[in-house]
Amino acid sequence: MSIKVEEKTVAAPNATKAEPRSGGTSRWVNMLAFDKVGAIYVWIAIVIVFSFWAPDTFPNITTAKQILNSNAITGLAALAVTIPLAARVFDLSFALNMTLCGVAVAHFVVDGIPLGVALALGVLIGLAVGLINATVVVVMKIDSFIATLATGSLIQALITLVTNDTPISDAKLSGGFSKIGQTTVGGITLPVLYFALVAVGIWYLLEHTATGRRLYATGFNPDAARLAGVSVARLQFMTLVTSGVLSGATGIVLASILGGGSPTAGTPYLLPGFAAVFLGATQLKNGRFNAGGTIIAVLLLGTGTTGLGLANAPQWSGALFVGIVLIAALMVTGLQRRTTLTARAPAVDEAEPQPA
Amino acid sequence: MSVSENVVGAGGTSLAPAQTGTVLRVEGLSKTFPGTRALDDVSIEIARGEIHALMGQNGSGKSTLIKLLAAYHSADAGATAEMDGAEFEIGKTVPHGLRFVHQDLGLILELSAQDNLALRGGFARGFGGRVLWRQQEAETRRILAAFDVDLDIHRPLAAATPVERTVVAIAAALQGWDGDGVLVLDEPTAVLPHDEVQRLFDVVAQVRKRGTSVLYVSHRMDEIFALADRVTVLRGGRRVGTYDIDGLDSRKLATLMVGNDVDPDFRADVVARTDTSVTLEARDVHGKWLRGVTLEARAGEILGIAGLAGAGTLELPYVLAGQGGPLASGELRLPQRSEEWHDVRSAGQLGIPLVPSDRQTEGVIAEFSVGENLSLSSLRGLGRTGHLSGGQERQLVEQWSARLGVVTAGPSAPISTLSGGNQQKVVLARCLAISPDVLVLCEPTAGVDIGTRVAIYRIIADLAAAGLTVIVASSDEGDLLALSTRILVLRHGVVAEELATDGLTKNELIRAIEGAGQ
């Protein structure tokens, strides 16, 4: 049949393209491609810039440790919202949930409740917040963006109830409680370890389990996912429960670092947390919220802000840097997607049907 | 039988281009995407006042040609184009007289017909930017009056029927233009139920009456024979030729498109079964449209579901797959597995897979690869205790891609690089990979070209021969005749008639669907 020949010429560039899996070299080249890990190149550039800008203070191991230690909480916060975002569910209440769990545990410890019990209660509060969020979003079917803004307001009410808007501080808080976040091993604090552990857990969940795949399917096209047999509502419910527990635990670690319950502790992490996840989604697996990308993003943003501090740049430069990086990353990703869309070759059907 | 038997005339006689002159002429048009020549030296000439069809399989370059005309893509160098004798740069500028109605219509459904028209044509404004609503309303009525459509111009278009929306889109495209020009209609019937197609044809005839030429893009051959004067056929990015419709029949046209003798009246080699055991029973199924459907299907049977829009034809598959939504009620039973009846609202757990009607919004996940799309329903079986085994997944995907003949660069290729027909095969493979006893299909060949369409028919027929129960609902009689061993015709939400397909003609089926003689 004549048409076959014509079609082969059209389809050839597609059909002969090497699978990224097949060759060892092409696999590495593919992994290091700018559109996959562009932020790493930007990060290297930033490190070089600051090494010249602040040669006395920036390029040393202390700075590296400082960057890790001071960004572990941002990283944990970002990971907490990675799972809901993978399923396209927003948890805007996570920062207030952090605050609530932090002040609650501080309150319990000051009240003389044993540390273990206090911690368990704190995590349970996070779980309860997650369950409430999930109920409002999934059962009552309210858009997650607005719903978690509303539940955030409820959480704020509880925070004020517990603290009267004054920080909780007490000598009891400098005991075992402070060890959770302040213990250092070779200059690295424990929260960095927590960050690494949670990142590995989320990486495994999203990349290597059926649940992870179903979460992405839910996020990209909930209707198609439902028709393919994915329990969309149950997954969305679970993502909010997970982010409730994770952000609650993160808030407790933060309170331990701060050595007390601050009624505004979590709020500063709202924007950096989301910034890191969205920047992370432009890395490694383009368009998918993923743990590895989040780590890269946290390091990039953390290095930039720390470097600006060490270089004695003005106070406002840190926030400016985060804003510019985020816009640039999303713009580049958007451009890439548009080019691939318009350049997409209209594929050709084979003419001869080949039934089973 | 030939499809042209079923011609529903649109009025008007064929106009020979020589007598009336050419309104749009494009020559030497090519478009190269990285790695692919989507269009190769294509020319097209549209005569004044004619309805000119553009046909071709998926990937033949039809949509690329339309997108070049609309200056959505830029053309390769070397093309010449002129409209009404004036040259223009194709791919960069769009002449004033060239108007488009794209497949998605480009309307804002939350807004009224009046607002939609005004958004394109401009508002009548007075002092301080105030909209002169009375004047605006008169203008809207004047525009729509030309199309003989009775529509509440203040109601959101979401409440209008599909054909009314199409008419508003056509009116919006043509407003502010009284000259000859060319209206490009890209698959206008893709979203229309069968019984509304005739109304669209009337509107197209009215458009032609004002002297406007129509470039009509469609997959459906019977429409071309009913409507067009001439047809230009594309294949693999090249122009096969332009033909007078009078000299063609559906077989010839199909051959021109596919380049190979594919039978447009293909009938799958399946026999009606009454000897096998019943695999699916449904009783008293209600829904948004359904008003108490009871049916049973046997192993190895392909049960067709036919009916007009609103009869519940396209709702039934969703209900049977347990995806009927809050309005669905009724009971299902799989007698081979258990005697127990299940409520249709919890029937999702029965594992009856569905190939949904709208591939883009309900079938594929555009951001996923071919492999991820294919394996989505069978992830549980790939690996142990929640772990997803990449190796097992790859094996499953390759096995099914090969079985169904999916043309792809590999499991990790983005699904969006596949043609519609191949995407449909992936969705079908996803359903089959869970080894179901019963498979439900809704509009299985919508937006699928003839070659792949027959391939899909053959796959389904082979599966039925191997004992699978298939239920196929379609608004395309061709699907039902090609596949079914038995057809249930729905009217007003109930089973009105049961037809054996042996010897059934297309006209008989259409008469039954439309309830003629009732």
Give an overview in words.
- The complex is a heterodimer of chains A (356) and B (518).
- Chain A has 356 residues and is mostly helical.
- Chain A has a single domain, classed as ABC transporter involved in vitamin B12 uptake, BtuC (Orthogonal Bundle), CATH 1.10.3470.
- Chain A has helices at 3-15, 24-31, 34-53, 61-86, 94-110, 115-139, 144-163, 176-182, 190-208, 210-220, 222-227, 232-258, 270-281, 291-310, 317-343; strands at residues 184-185, 188-189.
- In chain A, a hairpin with a 2-residue loop joins β1 and β2.
- In chain A, α5 (94-110) packs across α12, α6 runs antiparallel to α12 (232-258) and α13 crosses α14.
- Chain A is globular, with a radius of gyration of 23 Å.
- The longest helix of chain B is centred in the middle third of the chain and has 16 residues, at 194-209.
- In chain B, strands 6-7-8-3-9-10 form a six-stranded mixed beta sheet, sandwiched between helices.
- Classes of the chains: A mainly alpha (356), B alpha/beta (518).
- Chains A and B meet through α1, α10, α11 and α15 of A and β2, α10, α12, α13 and α14 of B.
Task: Give a short summary of the structure.
The complex is a heterodimer of chains A (356) and B (518). Chain A is mainly alpha-helical.
Key terms for this structure?
heterodimer, A: mainly alpha, ABC transporter involved in vitamin B12 uptake, BtuC, two-stranded antiparallel sheet, 15 helices, 2 strands, globular, disordered C terminus, B: 518 residues, alpha/beta, Rossmann fold, 4 domains, six-stranded mixed beta sheet, 16 helices, disordered N terminus
